[in-house]
Design brief:
The protein is α/β, with parallel strands linked by helices and 524 residues long. It contains 23 helices and 13 strands. Helix 19 (368-382) runs antiparallel to helix 22. The protein has helices at 12-17, 26-35, 49-60, 71-75, 103-119, 129-144, 157-160, 166-180, 182-185, 205-208, 230-236, 238-247, 252-263, 278-287, 293-296, 301-309, 326-330, 340-345, 368-382, 394-403, 406-418, 429-444, 480-489; strands spanning 38-42, 88-92, 148-153, 190-197, 214-215, 322-324, 350-355, 360-364, 449-452, 461-464, 468-476, 502-511, 516-523. It folds into four domains: 12-222, 3-Layer(aba) Sandwich (Rossmann fold); 230-296, no CATH class; 301-368, no CATH class; 383-523, Trna Endonuclease, Chain: A, domain 1 (3-Layer(aba) Sandwich), CATH 3.40.1350.
Length: 524
């Protein structure tokens, strides 16, 4: 009998009562509640933030029975005050359309009404949202004799959902400023605060006013608080690994390697072990196949548009040249043009290295799911009508490459580059054609073997199939002959001299004025 996988289960009580598998994270809960008072944690969407808050809620409400057999049950045994029930206020900003006028105020008012029924006799506690919140906190403290616990889930959703509407975003920031300033002005009623989100808008007063809020997003001690580690997979999901391996005709070791390739690689501290995406991991176990589950739940439309509009060099995704400081990774203004902070905080980039002397992080894609999912989303921003069946798609190019159809490859690439989109006539064509080359051949590498290099003297692109090897050199406003000479002069074909496969050297030239592929020559 297959066990119950907690896919999308965010309620800790329901998870425990209904017999779902639970990866014990309660040691983190114990440390949080016994070493501090006010915290902020940033993690990508669908990474377990809501379940963590639900677990905190159950702990502060004193529901000891839900924690039986878990680590925190042992840790709290010596504390006579453990499992005291405190008034808990959980703000959940999911489930609203923030493009509607005053949607944020409506969401806050709806949540306050429930607590006013309990603590204020059903009466409104004031004229403004902040006054009502203050009254609820004070009355709860007076009635229970215990200070209040405030938990905020996905605080930034009302800001990210309106990222393309600056006026609405500024309005929602102003609403937050008045509302959450209560957490500082009425600190005497507060026992514990925990706030989660994807991003940290450092200009939002929830952070600038609450200067005592402890941001643990990059703290090594809490790097595994959300997500699933390799050790936890082996401890909690060995039967699921075995079933997946059997269904895919793999050994257990091969299965673990593929899981790591697809879903591991998130690092929330430079020294921490990698963390697997929990949603995709559980879906892979459930479906018994490897797929892009997390990425399919939300396309980063705003981000891919921003990358194009800011002329971001997408080739940086492949050569480990995306750098960031502590402040870039933890703070997001929502006003600048740098897409890196949001790419990291949203989970599309992760930490791969850290230079302590310069306090500088190196970032890259965490795994296969994110890399190919993101690049597939980015491609249509540069080339129109390049989907499956268009004749300008990656699947057709793959077919031509596997058959050795050089004319088909040339015609497809000519048509593909003829459909490059651009916003301004003054935009440099070189930026676009280099971006499309990178995207095209990296996505092709999903099916064959593609090694993409920067334009610093190494071969621009190498594509390998079962029967063929293609060495491409691309030029702009030069000639295909010059591209071929570079392949020969630098002995790019030398590593394949003993290879049994047919090798083609291909020189390609683009004309920036006509914005077309104009010259294509092949040598064997």
């Amino acid at each position: 009998m297959e066990r119950k996988l907690p896919i999308g289960v965010q309620d800790f009580g329901g998870l425990r009562r209904d017999g779902y598998i639970y990866v014990d994270k309660t040691e983190y809960i114990y440390k949080l509640v016994h070493t501090g008072k006010q915290y902020f944690l940033s993690r990508p969407r669908r990474f377990g933030k809501s379940l963590l808050l639900s677990t905190l809620r159950a702990y502060w409400e004193g529901k000891k029975e839900l924690f039986s057999g878990l680590m925190i049950d042992q840790l709290e045994q010596a504390d006579p005050n453990a499992w005291t029930s405190y008034p808990v206020f959980l703000f959940d900003f999911n489930g609203a359309n923030y493009l509607e006028q005053n949607a944020l105020e409506g969401k806050l008012s709806f949540q306050l009404r429930e607590w006013e029924e309990r603590y204020v006799g059903g009466q409104r506690g004031g004229d403004t949202l902040s006054e009502r919140f203050q009254t609820v906190l004070r009355r709860a403290y007076e009635q229970t004799g215990h200070r209040c616990v405030v938990l905020v889930d996905e605080y930034d959703k009302p800001l990210l959902d309106v990222a393309d509407h600056p006026e609405l975003q500024e309005h929602n920031k102003a609403v937050f400023k008045g509302f959450f300033s209560v957490l500082k002005s009425r600190d005497e009623y507060i026992k514990f605060v925990f706030i989660t989100g994807v991003t940290k808008f450092h200009k939002v007063s929830i952070f600038s006013d609450l200067n005592q809020l402890n941001d643990i997003s990059l703290n090594e001690d809490y790097a595994g608080a959300c997500g699933i580690t390799q050790k936890e997979i082996l401890q909690y999901f060995s039967p699921e690994v075995e079933r997946l391996a059997k269904r895919r005709n793999l050994t257990n070791e091969e299965c673990m390697n593929k899981l790591q390739e697809w879903y591991d690689g998130y690092h929330f501290n430079a020294s921490s072990e990698g963390v697997y995406n929990p949603f995709s991991l559980l879906k892979a176990f459930y479906e018994k196949k490897f797929g892009s589950y997390w990425f399919a739940t939300g396309t980063p439309t705003f981000l891919v548009k921003q990358l194009k509009e800011t002329s971001f060099d997408v080739r940086k995704f492949s050569d480990q040249t995306i750098y960031a400081s502590d402040s870039v990774l933890t703070d997001y203004t929502g006003e600048g043009t740098d897409p890196v902070p949001l790419l990291y905080q949203s989970g599309y980039l992760t930490i791969t290295d850290y230079d302590e002397s310069g306090s500088m992080y190196t970032l890259s894609f965490p795994n296969r799911e994110v890399k190919y999912g993101f690049l597939e989303s980015l491609m249509p921003e540069y080339v129109s009508d390049c989907g499956a069946g268009s004749g300008r798609d990656i699947f057709t190019l793959r077919e031509y490459a596997e058959k050795g159809d050089l004319d088909g490859m040339r015609d497809l690439l000519t048509a593909l580059f003829a459909n490059i989109t651009y916003t301004l006539a003054s935009d440099p064509f070189e930026h676009y054609f280099q971006a499309v080359i990178y995207l095209t051949f990296t996505l092709l590498g999903k099916f064959t073997h593609c090694e993409m290099h920067t334009y610093t003297g190494r071969i621009d692109c190498k594509v390998e199939t079962r029967d063929y090897i293609y060495l491409f050199e691309f030029k702009c406003d030069k000639s295909a002959d010059e591209a071929l000479r570079q392949i020969d002069d630098k002995d790019y074909a030398l590593p394949f001299i003993a290879d049994h496969r047919k090798l083609y050297k291909i020189g390609v030239n683009f004309d920036s004025a006509d914005r077309k592929l104009v010259d294509w020559k092949v040598a064997e």
